[in-house]
Amino acid sequence: MAQHPFSAVAGLPGVADAVAEARALVDQLLSHRVLRRRSSQVSAESALRGARASAALDGADWSLEEIRRRTNFANEPSGLVVEGALRVFAEFGQLLRTWEKAPLQVLARLHVLAAAGLAEPERLGRPRLPGEPVAGPPELGEPPAPVEVSARLNQLADLLVRDTLRDSAVPALVVAALVHGEVLALRPFPCANGVVARAAQRLVLISRGLDPKGVSVPEAGHYELGSEAYAAAARQYMSGTPDGVAAWVRHCAAAVGIGAREGLAVCEALQRG
């Protein structure tokens, strides 16, 4: 059986150690006694915190308390970003099975959820057109042209559904980081690409078994590491060099480790009552 292309990334300098460290922290979380009976509560809280952090990375930095209190977010643009992230993170359970067979279909659905109210209805779930502006952090530079985006997304989808990936030893975290980085680099939609990219990362972590219950909060890890570090790591991935890609995967591994600690904090809070 031919080696899957993602395997080369798993062997880059520092990646294996970073992945192992993050995996150990996630395993510690998954062994917490609270998850034996209350995993659904932890998953729900993880989704809420993940949505909050993902929206914050896109500039809508609302507190958890404010998000819990609100029933209507549509009064201001940043509220629409938060509302979109909440919709995305609430629908993971329905998207997992489709993700494993048709990841591009799921990416489109994620955009529909994330961008409602931010884009015209006819643009929801649709790849951006030539010349169409892209909302997003200017630190990432100009996105690729739509024709390149289409080719690279099709290649990514092909790699994700190949049997060689399912049967390979490529760590879930490496796959998640590459999916996250590629969507962030391509910015296939006119807006909300960051929320979509981070949601895709979480779908991979769940579907490939690193965090099958979705109880860690990797988005909170990215938020804690800081938006500047996040953008810098993304630019390294976009450079396409082995060192740049390795730096991005290590950054994602650090975020996953922090997210596991966030999940542990949720478990401890539930245990204390």
UniProtKB/TrEMBL annotation:
Annotated ranges, domain Fido: 102-251
SUPFAM superfamilies, sorted: Fic-like
Q: What is this protein called?
A: Oxidoreductase
Q: Which organism does this sequence originate in?
A: Carbonactinospora thermoautotrophica
